[in-house]
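FIELD: query
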Amino acid sequence: MSPTKKGRFSWLLKPFSHLIDLSIISFSIFLFEINLNHVYLFVIYAVIFWEAISFFNEFYEVQRHTRLLQIVTLLFRQFVLLAFALYAYIGFFKQPDISRLALGEYILSVFALVSFFKILLFFLLNRYRAVLGGNLRNVVVLGNTEKTRQLIKIFNTKLHFGYSFKKQFDVNDADFSLKKCFDYIIDNNINEVYFSVASLSNKQINKLIDFADNNLRELKFIPDNKDIYSKRLKYEYYDYIPVLSLRNIPIQTPINKFLKRAFDIVFSFLVVVFILSWLTPILAIIIRLESKGPIFFKQSRNGFNYKEFDCYKFRSMTPNENAHMEQATKGDMRITKVGAFIRKTSIDELPQFFNVLFGDMSVVGPRPHMVSHTNMYARKVDKFMVRHFVKPGITGLAQTSGFRGEIETNKDIVNRVKYDIFYIENWSLLLDIKIVVQTFLNAVKGEEKAY
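FIELD: result
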């Protein structure tokens, strides 16, 4: 089974909605005589609180099966908190001359405009899915129970949800096999797989989980009794049918996503300004003096959702045709003298902080592999593709745990994947900081497999 590139159909919707809301908040202030001493300070203050409240409130986490009532609830909760924050501005910045009435009119106007555009976007997107058949996700259902039949009815009747139901697999059919099911999922570009827990054996469920992990398909449970499952599973409701998501990835929650991205930007910016700004020209001279060729080495690697990106390093080898296919080995004759030093101290990896600023990588995460190696390991190593549910990192838990550098045996890559999956499922900002500190200590003392 080969991995598939997983598409995100509506990745522009959240940024677009975000842009509309921030524009309304920023420009509407000039329509009211609030008597602000520093209008731009107020705008910055309002935007910061709007963003903070949005992340805690999950204001932009509107799914295709979200109901209008849920959106209205989000809007009221968002603006009640924002109103408290904006009125607190008066006392916090000691501006008693501000017109409370005008400030209230501003808040109500912003509430009306943001609500209008959010609900309008919600209805337009629903119509786009229902009438034009756009923004669809292909789905299959395994099992033939009352709840699976109800779910299929929802898929077929509530077209505005944007699910294209392709096939139901009845496990009681004489010709049913998971292999036929897997082949159909791959051949028909199925995005999400729903299955009834009661219909499959534990062995079949484990095979289904492994298939979904290795092929980047979203797998969702249809429980018979939602109360018997661990509360760590994520519950969602499609109309009135409970559905459970299998893997809980902490980085994917809005507040954690914001914290990790903020950490990445701040840390990378500091490295670029205070280290790369003076180190790059020095290394450029030394690298060019020893061997002709570019200062930077660019290599295509697989990142988040299996998307390919250009990963940058300081060149540590003489230019060669096999650089994109063959991993460096101990005593590799391609490595230059300065290259050996910068690889031993991990200095060659520093240009990847630009990849972090570009958004292709994170400071900490599973290390990305060459495209050819990714395809090979995806076939050989179970759950290898799970690593692509998050952005790849400059360093990672596997690397600080002794599994960096050359992969000499299958045990090396298997252990690396185990540590990567543990990191994905147990992420915290403190864990990222710990890994960064350990990486620095390892770089200072040098590592045995850094060659």
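FIELD: remark
The domain at 137-248 is CATH 3.40.50.2300 (Rossmann fold).
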